[in-house]
Amino acid sequence: EQHAGPSYVFPDVVPPSPEVRVERSDRSVRDALRGANPGNWEPVEWDELLDGQLGPWTMVLDGDRAVSLCHTPRPFTPRAAECGVWTQPGARGRGYAAATAAVWADLLRPTGRVLFYSTDADNRSSQRVAERLRLRPIGWTWRLRAPDPEPQAVHPLSALRRR
Sorting pLDDT into bands at 50, 70 and 90, what band is 69? Predict the structure, then answer.
């Protein structure tokens, strides 16, 4: 199995995003967000995300549901972190992905880590997010691995992976 696509690094300053309220893992009332799971996270995994066990996150809500989420999809190191962005199909094209990614970068910038954004070659929407944020292209990422006979679409730090 292989995936490839462009990788970017966040600049020191990210252009402002549209006026969108973005919840942050360091400032949100987490218990109020327990029911905001958009439906594509396992309940245990969602609780782990909100509790900070899966790294920093930012999200846009529409009513009581998350419609866009930027999180740290892989363990970050003392020197670097990468973000992953997801937006509900019906909420795309409104600037939510760029807003969540910009706030995620602001959240992590004080740590001094190099902040990355990567996407797949065929994900033009995600590449437009990188353009909107004026992220600097740094190369191409290739991910090669043997097919998983029982793939788990959960965060690599989730307790669900350790079962």
Answer: very high
3-class SS letters over the chain = CEEEEEEEECCCCCCCCCCCCCEECCCCCHHHHHHHCCCCCCHHHHHHHHCCCCCCEEEEEECCEEEEEEECCCCCCCCEEEEEEEECHHHCCCCHHHHHHHHHHHHHHHHCCEEEEECCCCCHHHHHHHHHCCCEEEEEEEEECCCCCCCCCCCCCCHHHHC
Q: Which of 74, 72, 56, 61 is nearest to 34 (CA)?
A: 61
Taking residues 65-92, report their average pLDDT.
93
Task: Name the residue with tokens 């992976």.
Answer: 161
